[in-house]
Amino acid sequence: MIAEDLVIEKGVTGGDQWVTVPAERIREALLALKGDGFRLLVFLTCVDHLVDSSREFPARYEVVYQLRDLEKPTDLRVRAFIDGDPPRIDSVHDIFPPANWEERETYDMFGIVFTGHPGLTRILMPDDWVGHPLRRDYPVGGEVVEFSEEHKIWQTAPEEA
Amino acid sequence: MGVEELVASLGDNILTTTLGKLIGWGRGNSVWPAQFGLACCAIEMIATATAGVDIARFGSEAFRASPRQSDLMIVSGRVSQKMAPILRTVYDQMPEPKWVISMGACASTGGVFNNYALLQGVDKIVPVDVYIPGCPPRPEDLLNALMILQERIKAQGIIPLP
Amino acid sequence: MSTIESPGVTISRTGEKGAFGGELLTVNFGPHHPSTHGVLRLIVDLDGEQIKRVQPVIGYLHTGIEKQMEALRWQQGVVVTDRHDYLSPPINNLAYALAVEKLMGVEVPSRANALRVIMSELTRLSSHLVWMGTSGLELGAMSMLMYCFRERDTIMDLNEEISGFRMHTSYIRPGGVFADATPRFLEMLDKFIREMPAHVDEYEDLLTMNPIWRSRTIGIGRLSPEDAKVLGASGPMIRGSGVAWDLRKSIPYSGYEDYDFEIAVSNDCDCYGRYLVRIKEMREAVKILRQALDRLPDGPVNVDDRKMLPPPREELETSMEAVIHHFKLFTEGYSVPAGDAYVAVESGRGENGCYIVSDGTHKPRRVKFRSASFVNLQALERMALNHMIADMIAIIGTADTVLGDCDR
Prior knowledge:
The complex is a heterotrimer of chains A (about 160), B (about 160) and C (about 400).
Chain A (H helix, E strand, L loop, with lengths): L8 E5 L2 E5 L5 H11 L3 E9 L12 E9 L4 E9 L5 E3 L8 H12 L2 E3 L35 H5 L6
Parallel strand pairs in A: 2-5, 6-7
Antiparallel strand pairs in A: 1-2, 3-4, 4-5
Chain B lengths: L1 H9 L3 H15 L4 E2 L5 H10 L22 E5 L7 H10 L5 E5 L1 H5 L20 E3 L6 H18 L6
Parallel strand pairs in B: 1-2, 2-3, 3-4
Helix pairs in contact in B: 2-6, 3-6
Chain C lengths: L1 E5 L2 E5 L11 E5 L11 E7 L2 E8 L7 H6 L6 H6 L6 H16 L5 H29 L4 H21 L8 E2 L2 E2 L5 H25 L3 H7 L7 H6 L5 H4 L7 H4 L20 H24 L25 H12 L7 E8 L4 E8 L7 E5 L1 H5 L3 H5 L6 H9 L3 H5 L1
Antiparallel strand pairs in C: 1-2, 3-4, 4-5, 6-7, 8-9, 9-10
């Protein structure tokens, strides 16, 4: 079982099991879980909690890993909260090969630097794009649509997200 | 190219009018599209080429893979920021005379998606002759657009040299 | 060693001797290519005709769907989910609808579940038909395109009958489905189910024992079961390598546990095996459709929750609460309780999932689509090594990537 000191918090939301681990020890935690049988990384992504008043979050960026044990089958969500400019976390591409491209996409969209990744470059946006589109302070962009009630909100960076 | 020069050397008379009609008829009835299927509209474009709808009876038998052998570019699908320079390059590689049909809402105006990642209409980088609304438009809509374009080509006849 | 720097991608002409004494040649399978199933760019290093290295470059169809959904309300987002994996729109809708319902804690009625299963299986058929038509076209069997799209047209007619749209139906929505099936739809579906097995037999006649098809697909694109599991492949990519993993059986949803069907598995581990898996899946889809149609339960098709779905128009004349609910739903939209949820469904390509994060308001905070094509494409290099360049087409075809799904 995953060591007790690695688990900051755990719970169940809507039937999904999740566990929060410290971001500096993410590799240790994921290796322990892989040893437990969670050998498939289903997806890896990030959520930006800028100006989210529904709850208290330890940090702005929450990196989410969904692991699956194919034998049972059960799912487990692992979270790690990071901050910083740029936010950094260890790469897990050697533990779970599908993480290779997922980490590149998370870097492209959120600017999170995965230390130890073999080739952390943009994957979806053009290579000379400036900015990280899925951050909450990046405007949705596009064209202003007259008489649409939200065109002012869409095209400018939200202060209140 | 060679035809326009020949006609310019003949001057303005009844011979060139009939020749113009003949050329327009020839060009209009054999419009060869370049394959430029990008997204969902591409599937409906392929469906237009299949037996139920059959674009081949309008002369567009061969969807050429190489832009150098085609005269129509059907932009079918959404054009992202990364794809835009490539679309312009392919358009530039097509020899004159060339036409562009912008198929679907995303190619015409950005469609459902009004955001950073898409060109809000392909007419921002290439000149468009016919727009087809729809998401995706029916295969018959593409045929309708082709017929509109054919009438325009036939009416144009000889395209004057610049 | 000379390197050519193109922005973001480094291609090295290593100068090492290939097997026949020459250098490695770098070829660009550009995004504008007739056979790459969409705008996929591959940078291939060749030694003569043998593939030594494959680097996929994606992003040419990046649509910003995840950002777009943060700007739309929960019920408006359904329209956008259709368009990411554009060969199977109802299945994307289903993943999103199930995730929202999981967070809201609602259960849809059984008639809605049956209709959802019907639409999913019809879509699976349509997706495999497009795959087979275009793969046949690329490998030279041009008539496959005509045959397969004939059946797909019937499925499009069915889609149009039930939802008004041919392709992007937006039929499956959080809370149920768009509208009940008309009697004409049920008739058309019955006719389709009766005729489809003969058509699948026709396709098998054309391809399965065809010596050209076999020589172009047997032994090509091998992916061992261990590699498939390690690389996270799903769908026919993993079932064609002998691993019997199908989300409809392992983590069932929408009542799939009540239907009697088999998982299509092949031990061949190559392109031919995956072709056999897809043919079998088409037959099983027809079986499921027959069971769903025969057992279609009566009842409502939407959950009876006024906080989520608008009241019927007749009620607006008599009830004030109905008017208020109607107003709130059509201006602000419903709010989903704070939290996050992930639901995965089995699409024609594999595991397509939707992860939503809600902060309790009427718009999502984050919607992430777990895309089967994105993960399956990482296996491309493993499958293509040491094959000939002409086999690259067969391998890209067998992966059945949809670039809209990959790039979102």
